[in-house]
Amino acid sequence: MTKGRILVVEDDFDISNMLKIYFSAQGFDVQICARGSDALADTRRQLPNLIVLDIMLPDMNGYDVCRSLRTTPRTSHIPIIFLTQKDERSDKIQGLELGADDYITKPFDIEELKLRVSNAILAASRQTQIDSKSNLPSGRLIEDHLRSLMQSQKPWTYLDLRINNFDAFTDVYGFVAGDEVIRFMSLLIGEVIDSGGTSDDYAGHPGRDNFIIITHADNVEALKHTLIERFDEEVRQHYSFIDRERGYILVPDGVYGEKQVPLMSLGVGAVGTRTHQFSDIREITELAAEDRRRGLTGQDSSASILTSW
């Protein structure tokens, strides 16, 4: 199991290749970008656990990359370690003022860099409540973002997302397969926001099969439709051919033998400032969850029983 995803933004091939080989051997998933613009695009598609960022890049400097990441809600929590040949005190201060978590100069000790990377990822997980599987904010971070939005005048919509039948899936396929579904969901949310949302949109992972999106997009219905349609189509890759073909899985049942449970689907509820005025965070989450549950009304969510007698 990977220790986390590291994005190395470095235009020196020898250095980036050395870092990829070393950290991959340490159990990390390592991606390389040689340009700052590519790093920003890659980060939007899939959030890394940490970014190692060179300051001197061919298209833009690392300070601008860091500034963009820190001012975008979806990426503001990602730890950043600057990697540079500059050793001036003013350069270090500038990087730290922009929100970088650490700073190391070339030539560097690879073991020291490994410790800094591991410590930064661990600190981010402990202090900012980042889910280790989805790499999305949870708990206090989501609440803080909602509180700040409640003070603003800009319209927004809160989407409550839940993966239906997720527990039954893990009962049959195991927790490792369940973790893959969580990572798939996180990636899907990022892609849908990137294509149909705005740069100020926010995604979070309150827990296990529950995700949230806070969007400023005008066409929320289109966003919901895309999420549901793509999930239904793409989640099937996590099932065996037999289960995909018949459209359900057989879950062991101690009393009745086995029961049929439909393939996973995505439930989505929404509530926003265009139709409501909120007094507290709990009101937002409860109304969105109620809207999601209302969308399931009339659907047959019960499992069929297959006796093994």
Secondary structural class: alpha/beta
Quote the beta fraction.
15-25%
Number of domains: 2
Strands side by side in the biggest sheet: 2-1-3-4-5
Count of strand segments: 12
Order of helices and strands: EHEHEHEHEHHEHHEEHHEEEHE
The CATH architecture category of the largest domain equals: 2-Layer Sandwich
What's the CATH H-level superfamily name of the largest domain? Reverse transcriptase/Diguanylate cyclase domain
Largest sheet: 5 strands, parallel
The averaged pLDDT comes out at 87
Amino- and carboxy-terminal Cα gap: 39 Å
Uncertain stretches: 297-309
CATH class of the largest domain: Alpha Beta
As a percent range, the share of helical residues equals 40-55%
- Radius of gyration based on Cα positions: 22 Å
- For this structure, the CATH topology of the largest domain is Alpha-Beta Plaits
Number of helices: 11
Q: What coarse outline follows from CA principal-axis ratios?
A: globular
